Amino acid sequence: MPRLEEFGEMLSKMSAGEKAQVLNWVVQDLGDALPGIDSRPDVCGGAACIVRTRIPVWLLEQTRSLGATEQALLAAYPSLRAEDLVNAWNYARAHADEIGRQIRANETA
């Protein structure tokens, strides 16, 4: 198995499409383990939230889809960091069906 440095060299020679495929493999390998996101039954009804907060990923994704910028989100939620938003977008992308269901459920509530 190649060392990390060798992998970095290989990665630098890949096309954008090849890198995207590698990223898909990594995400699949990680399964539900995405950094900075936690889901606990006793917090926000079990919805995936930003670690250290009670801010659900679905809420951030919905707000972004309504036109909010990352700067606006960071200003509205002072406990958030830019890294948290990256983690939220990654989670939302990897769990699009789940996030969509949560957004729809909260729109009708």
CATH class categorisation of the largest domain: Mainly Alpha
Largest sheet: 2 strands, antiparallel
Known CATH architecture of the largest domain: Orthogonal Bundle
Distinct helical segment count: 6
Written as H for each helix and E for each strand, in order along the chain, the element string is: HHEEHHHH
Model regions low in confidence, pLDDT < 50 over at least 5 residues:
none
- Rg to the nearest angstrom? 16 Å
Structural class of the helices, strands and pairings?
mainly alpha
> What's the rounded overall pLDDT mean?
88
**CATH homology superfamily name of the largest domain:** Winged helix-like DNA-binding domain superfamily/Winged helix DNA-binding domain
Distance between the termini: 51 Å
Beta-strand percentage range? under 5%
Q: Which fold name fills CATH's third level, the topology of the largest domain? A: Arc Repressor Mutant, subunit A
Structure, explained:
With 109 residues, this protein is mainly alpha-helical. It folds into two domains: 1-31; 35-108, Winged helix-like DNA-binding domain superfamily/Winged helix DNA-binding domain (Arc Repressor Mutant, subunit A, Orthogonal Bundle), CATH 1.10.10. It is built from six helices and two strands. Strands 1-2 form a two-stranded antiparallel ribbon. The longest helix is centred in the first third of the chain and has 15 residues, at 16-30. The chain is elongated and about 50 Å long. It starts with a helix and ends with a helix.
